[in-house]
Amino acid sequence: MSIGDCPVSYRLSTIQFQSLARDVEIGANSYLLSFGDTRVLIDSGMHPKREGDEAIPDFSGIEFGSIDAAFLSHAHLDHSGTMPIIQRSQPDMPVFTTAPTAALAEALLHNSVNVMTSKREELKRTDYPLFTHRDVGRATKNWTPRAPGRTFEIGDDVKCTLHEAGHILGATGTMFEYAGRTVFYTGDVHFEDQSIVCGADFPDSGIDVLVTECTRGDSPRAPEYTRQGEGERLADAIETCLSRGGSVLVPLFAMGKTQETLTLLRDFQNEGRLRPLPFHIGGLSVKMTTIYDRFADRVRRKHPGMRLLRTEGLLQMPRRRGEMPELGGGQVFTLSSGMMSEHTMSNRVARGFVHNPKNLVAVVGYADPATPLAALLRSERGEEIEFDHRHDPVRRECDVERFDFSGHAPRSHLIDYVERVRPKVAVLVHGDRPAVEWMRTEIGKRLPETQVIVPTPGEAFDIS
Ligand SMILES: [Zn+2]
Ligand SMILES: [Zn+2]
């Protein structure tokens, strides 16, 4: 049954939740909430590993013009990537988000059109691109920035407040208040400060229903871990490599990871732990850094006012779009994409880089098992790796080291948060099966009174 099928008398003052994702996993995240007759969409993501219709949330039950408002929690494409598609059928629907998320997501969506357009040729997909630059332009006109901490009203007496979620610039969770009850959606969250973004500023009481992400539920973080210690380990690894005449490649997602890592390395340069030298960046990373810099003194963050692109001697950019940097010794390449996907700069540099035993690839982000970066991480020294199917494999002789700078809360912090909140109902989303099951068991142990729900995709259920 979909939310729209319920009889009107029953719907009055009822709160319902429905996952529009196609599976219990981190894929195309999208959720439908109904507060009586007011219908709200939360996020509209694109699946990072699927193509075409399979990459889109299941919007089949949603009628034209039937949603009153949407919320976009943050710019990552698994939350924002299909917003222009659902907005086509909801032309009057306002999309509430923060100003930084609006700016970052708009740039990512335009880039996504370009990626889909090249896939049209490469994968022979006549349905691509799934939306156009013009669709993005039309959609963003209905995006309505809201500042965190300010309450506003939508539809039939539903009060909404955004709360900063850490994770990446502009990310928020959303509190809904309706008919004396509250629902809080965390979005993607990190409770610890990163180099730029401050940890989440979440309410921890007065929440009846908590809808929480579970990304890192499947494994614990090492108890001795500190972000500072991990940063020092990275700085020392870079110094060691440079001292023996090698170069370092740090593959980075253009948005978030690039700006956080550059700021971390800049801090170590200022402390003298890392020698002063410019970091090579390019393409989409420059665009995303411009947006981070634009909000340098407009959001709560660390190093307020610090602009990466205006920091003397910090960055080295290509003179022409797509130009390869020279691969001599003594350089640090902080290039996208984060998983060395084909046709990206980090992939191209890696092909001319990993044969040199003096070099180091420093991995600071997530590596999907099907990507060239994961192949590199799995490899032994001397093994051949195919980075790009159009080119010969390359023998890996360089060092490869992994570092943890996740923008997601470790599971101990997630479960501590649920315990502090003590919700009547906990709805578990944004996690693969093992992650969600760990959270379900752990909440059962700590809060036996709390009802725990893992939503079956497509099924609406009462949460009040
Ligand atoms: Zn995210
Ligand atoms: Zn996500």
Overview of this protein structure:
It is a single chain. The chain is an alpha/beta fold. The protein folds into two domains: 3-219 and 407-462, Ribonuclease Z/Hydroxyacylglutathione hydrolase-like (Metallo-beta-lactamase, Chain A, 4-Layer Sandwich), CATH 3.60.15.10; 227-402, Rossmann fold, CATH 3.40.50.10890. The chain is built from twelve helices and 22 strands. It has helices at residues 8-11, 77-80, 83-88, 99-122, 133-140, 227-243, 257-271, 283-294, 345-351, 372-378, 411-421, 433-446, and strands spanning 15-19, 31-35, 38-42, 69-71, 95-97, 143-145, 152-154, 158-164, 172-178, 181-185, 209-213, 248-251, 279-280, 315-316, 332-335, 360-363, 384-385, 394-395, 399-402, 425-429, 451-453, 460-462. A seven-stranded mixed β-sheet has the order 6-5-4-3-2-1-22. Strands 7-8-9-10-11-20-21 form a seven-stranded mixed β-sheet, with helices on one face. A six-stranded parallel β-sheet has the order 14-13-15-12-16-19, sandwiched between helices. The longest helix has 24 residues, at 99-122. The radius of gyration is 22 Å and the shape is globular. It starts with 7 loop residues before the first helix and ends with a strand. The mean pLDDT is 95. Bound molecules: zinc ion (ZN) (2 copies). One zinc ion binds next to helix 2. One zinc ion is lined by residues 74, 76, 167, 188.
Keywords:
Rossmann fold, 2 domains, binds zinc ion, 7-stranded mixed β-sheet, alpha/beta, 19% strand, 12 helices, Metallo-beta-lactamase, Chain A, single chain, 464 residues, globular
